[in-house]
Every structure is written in structure tokens, then in C-alpha cells.
Amino acid sequence: MANHGYFDVGYMDTLAAGDSPLHRIDPRVKLITTVVFIATVVSFNKYTVTGLIPFFSFPIILIILGGIPSGYILKKVLLISPFAILVGIFNPVFDRSVVYHIGSIGISGGWVSFISILLRFALTVTSALVLVALTGFNSVCLALEKFGVPKPFIVQLLFLYRYMFVLAEELGHMIRARAVRSFSGRAIHFKAFASIIGHLLLRTLDRAERVYRAMCCRGFDGRIRIMRSLRIGFKDVIFAVTWIMLFVSFRFWNIPVKLGELVTRIFT
Fold first, then answer.
1. Taking the alpha carbons of 203, 209, 212, 217 in that order, is the dihedral positive or negative?
2. 103-119: per-residue pLDDT in tens?
3. How far apart, in Å, do the first and last CA atoms of the chain sit?
4. C-beta of residue 127 within 8 angstroms of C-beta of residue 59
5. pLDDT, mean of residues 77-86
6. pLDDT value at residue 6
7. Per the structure, how many domains does the chain have?
8. Long-range CB contacts (< 8 A, 24+ apart) of 236-242?
9. What residue numbers bound the domain in which 143 lies?
10. Which tops the pLDDT comparison, 122 or 142?
11. Do 120 and 52 contact (CB within 8 A), yes or no?
12. Could you tell me which residues come within 8 angstroms of residue 43 by beta carbon, excluding any fewer than 6 positions away?
């Protein structure tokens, strides 16, 4: 049962069914705002750290106003954080040139770029998770379709998202079954691990086939249907314009550095 929080990816759909003002914003507006946010974040050079800090205001404010459990989003980010760590873990080894000094301590470019990678990973992944939690994956795919993304690609995204639930659920069942049958608590052997992965694949394929047949029996034809109608209003435009202007400001003005300089001038 302890793994439930990690494998309950379908909880995103429950969050997306909320009725806050952010939930009611047109999916196309939220999608384009998030895309601009991600593009702005990744546009910084590899040694930027302080300039990324103001961007945390976007996901944090959306989480608060949208009523999204911050702990749930944090768990999802931590779950996939090892990939970001693997990307940048060797930077301090290969890039040892000192780029900053804290007192007499020199900070190498490798450590700075590693921290920058982690910050950008946290920002982009969190914003994507918040987008799905506020909008729903079906609505996100519908917004992509309205922007002209090819329909086969969108259908593949839908099936990948839905069958990810199946894979996670089957994996959760197998982990609980092993925990119940394993009294010693010892680590699993490689042969047993390979067998579990094989059985997981077979069980997932079988379950996915049943899910697909059930969808076809219920009239699935590849079209995306959502309860809320798409309509861009004045509030939606204000939402997008305000945030995009803030992103541009954060990109070209390093707010923490400017504030630090202002405080220094005041107290000196």
C-alpha cells in the first residue's frame, strides 16, 4: 500500500475535474502559456542559477490557486529526478573552472551547471504536471489538435497516457504480491527481477488489449470529447498576457541580482 502514492497516476484526472478559476481557463491558453514558460526556462545558459529562481512563482501560484496538493506534485517530481541527476552528475568532474566565489571558497562551473540543470528540470516538470492537473490530459490533447498537431500523434499520446495507468497498476499489484510473499525482506535477485519484468510486459499487453476493445465497444473513434466547451474569453487573455510578460521580464532582468544590488546600495 505504501507504493500507492507513486503509482496512482490517474489521480491527475481527479484533480483536473476541479472547478477553480484556473480550471475554467481555456486549455489552449494554459497550454501556450506553459510552452512559453518552458521555452523561456530552457533558453538560459548553463551557468544561470539565480535568474531561474523567480520562475518558481508560476507553478507555485498555480498550485495554490488551483487547490492542487503540493505533496503529490513533489512526489512525482522526486520520482523522476534521478534522470536529471544522471544528466548532470558528471559536470563537476569535467568542468572544474571556478566561475563564482563565496568568500574564499571557489565554486566550479561544473557544480553551477549541475544546480542549473536541477532547477530547470524542477521548473519544467512541475509546470507540465500542473498543466495536466489543472486541465486534464484529454483537454491538453484537444488543445494540441486545435493548434494543428497531427491527429495520429495526438491519439498515440492519448493511448500512451492511458496505458501508462495500466502499466503502473500492474506493477503496483506485482510489488504488493512480492511483499506479501517475501518474509525475509531480502533484495530481489536478477533472475527473479527479469522474470517479473517479462510477466509485467505480458500482463500489461493483455490488459491493454482488453481496455482497447472496451473503448471500441463504447464508440471510440479517435475523436477527443470533453465536458467543457472551448472558448477563449477576456480572463483567459489576461492570464496568458500577464504571465508571458512576467516570463519575458524574468528572462531579461535578473530579479534576485537587481534586488541584491538595491539592498546593497540602501545599506551602504
1. negative
2. 677 778 888 889 999 99
3. 57
4. yes
5. 87
6. 46
7. 1
8. 236/25, 236/26, 236/29, 237/29, 239/25, 239/29, 239/30, 239/33, 240/29, 240/32, 240/33
9. 4-266
10. 122
11. yes
12. 251
User: Three-state SS string across the chain, please?
Assistant: CCCHHHHCCCHHHHHHCCCCCCCCCCHHHHHHHHHHHHHHHHCCCCCCCHHHHHHHHHHHHHHHHHCCCHHHHHHHHHHHHHHHHHHHCCHHHHCCCEEEEECCEEEEHHHHHHHHHHHHHHHHHHHHHHHHHHHCHHHHHHHHHHCCCCHHHHHHHHHHHHHHHHHHHHHHHHHHHHHHHCCCCCCCCHHHHHHHHHHHHHHHHHHHHHHHHHHHHCCCCCCCCCCCCCCCCHHHHHHHHHHHHHHHHHHHCCHHHHHHHHHHHHCC
Tens of pLDDT, residue by residue over 164-204, are 776 777 777 777 777 776 655 555 666 666 777 777 777 77
Cβ-based neighbours of 69, under 8 Å, separated by 6 or more: 15
**For position 188, what pLDDT does the model report?**
62
What length is written for the chain? 268
Most confident region among 93-102, 164-173, 186-195, 221-230 by mean pLDDT: 93-102
Q: Are 18 and 66 in contact (CB under 8 A)?
A: yes
CA 196/CA 194 separation, integer angstroms: 5
Buried b (16+ CB within 10 A) or exposed e, 151-160: eeebbeebee
Nearest residue to 29 via CA among 146, 129, 126 = 146
- CA 86 centroid distance within chain: 18
